[in-house]
TrEMBL record:
This is Simple sugar transport system ATP-binding protein. Keywords: ATP-binding, Nucleotide-binding, Sugar transport, Transport. The keyword ATP-binding applies. The lineage of its organism: Bacteria, Pseudomonadati, Pseudomonadota, Alphaproteobacteria, Rhodobacterales. The keyword ATP-binding applies. InterPro entries: AAA+_ATPase (IPR003593), ABC_carbohydrate_import_ATPase (IPR050107), ABC_transporter-like_ATP-bd (IPR003439), ABC_transporter-like_CS (IPR017871), P-loop_NTPase (IPR027417). Residues 4-243 form the ABC transporter domain. SMART domains: AAA (SM00382). GO terms for molecular function: ATP binding; ATP hydrolysis activity.
Length: 246
């Protein structure tokens, strides 16, 4: 059974048709690259999956059950997490505090309830070790590299017991070494049975970690191919319109 299934999803803003009749499914533990030029509809489609926008038409099913996602908190209840391009981290807090932001653990000291900083740091450290990341729980976010910041954002999704993680340009504006670290994080999520949708303009990254590639152009799906059966040249042609559809 597919973790996520979209059937004939469309979204318009007045006279502007941002997404038009897109259908797709994502299996458990599968990484799918979502590619397309600026304005192709990628962000709008992902925002509907994440609960930011209601579709104008079409259906969304999670684990075979039709759902209506009015807001992001409802998507998270269904196991859908998003790692934004800006990561949405608090620079003045530690890695552990960011992992648990909004989900803080508490413990009692007599009649008083206090934050369990030690317990949160321990659990965050376990998540970073699972990700094979050098990130340390008590380090401040502002002292971290781009790859370490990505590890914090991804650890937060693992803490939430995600089924599907939507990743928006996770390898943009970071070093080659940090890109490798983020791609390893994606492979780790797949190994844990967590599905990933990777939005990226970086063709080598998409071909390295995805199982399938979906291409949008002008709001429509023009390709849905096994990565191993395609090529960067073909995907580029589909994105630009040099190749109409496959």
């Amino acid at each position: 059974m597919a973790v996520l299934e979209l059937t004939d999803i469309s979204k318009h803003f007045g006279a502007i048709q941002a997404v038009n009749g897109v259908s797709l499914s994502i299996e458990r533990g599968e990484a799918v690259g979502l590619m397309g030029d600026n304005g192709a509809g990628k962000s709008t489609l992902v925002k509907m999956i994440a609960g930011n926008f209601l579709p104008s038409s079409g259906t969304i099913r999670i684990d075979g059950k039709e759902v209506t996602l009015h807001k992001p908190v409802e998507a998270r209840r269904h196991g859908i997490e998003i790692v934004h391009q800006d990561l949405a981290l608090c620079d003045n807090l530690t890695a552990a505090a960011n992992v648990f932001l909004g989900r803080e653990r508490r413990r009692r000291i007599g009649p008083v309830s206090v934050l369990d900083h030690a317990g949160m740091a321990k659990r965050a450290g376990e998540l970073f070790r699972d990700l094979k990341s050098e990130t340390r729980p008590r380090d401040l976010i502002r002292q971290m590299s781009g790859g370490q910041r990505q590890a914090v954002a991804i650890a937060r999704t693992m803490l939430a017991d995600a089924k599907l993680v939507l990743m928006d340009e996770p390898t943009a504006a970071i070093s080659v070494r940090q890109v490798a670290e983020v791609l390893n994080h994606i492979n780790h999520l797949k190994a844990q049975g967590i599905s990933v949708v990777l939005i990226s303009h970086r063709m080598p990254d998409v071909f390295e970690v995805t199982d399938r590639i979906i291409v949008l152009r002008r709001g429509r799906k023009v390709a849905d191919k096994r990565t191993e059966n395609s090529s960067p040249e073909e995907i580029t042609g589909l994105i630009t319109g040099a190749i109409e559809t496959v």
